[in-house]
Prior knowledge:
The complex is a heterodimer. Chain A is mostly beta strands. Helices cover about 0% and strands about 55% of the residues of chain A. In chain A, a hairpin with a 2-residue loop joins strand 7 (about 65-70) and strand 8. By secondary structure, chain B is mainly beta. In chain B, strand 7 (about 60-65) and strand 8 form a beta hairpin.
Amino acid sequence: DTAVSQTPKYLVTQMGNDKSIKCEQNLGHDTMYWYKQDSKKFLKIMFSYNNKELIINETVPNRFSPKSPDKAHLNLHINSLELGDSAVYFCASSPRGGYYGYTFGSGTRLTVV
Amino acid sequence: KNEVEQSPQNLTAQEGEFITINCSYSVGISALHWLQQHPGGGIVSLFMLSSGKKKHGRLIATINIQEKHSSLHITASHPRDSAVYICAVRGDFGNEKLTFGTGTRLTIIP
């Protein structure tokens, strides 16, 4: 029973398309995150939601829009995909804003062609 | 310059060797995390530290808050320890995001 699950695991799409990545956690955590890992394996925070409220929004193009319908879900929508969006996207969750550690999803490898 | 620096970037060792990976940071933190990422990509949280030392099996993590430095040690290394080890720091109150190091790629040769 996966704690933080992301779908899809792999996503290959053409430039200009719009796509979504879904994330769900069954840990009862209050806070969820999206991280991007680039081709050099460097991780960087994109967004953080606490109880459906956006609390961290890093310098991310506004083509990226997170949506949290409830505190167990944080989806990532990407419009007008560009080649540079190719990366691995990780969802994570934590209780109380990370004070007690993080649980990561298995990642979604997005390839834009 | 990255706020979180790790060394070495790559490390290859023989099975059984004692391994040390270092992490230095330049910002105020509320906690430091060590993460493990295997080939295949999943990220696992190994330790969360705000002071002192923690041990889990063959893994030991230490932190020196005054020196802004942490180390991850692996005793009796094994090929299954081959992975990328990532240091991440959680900022102070009001800046609670995780900032990551660039990772250390560890390869243990049988």
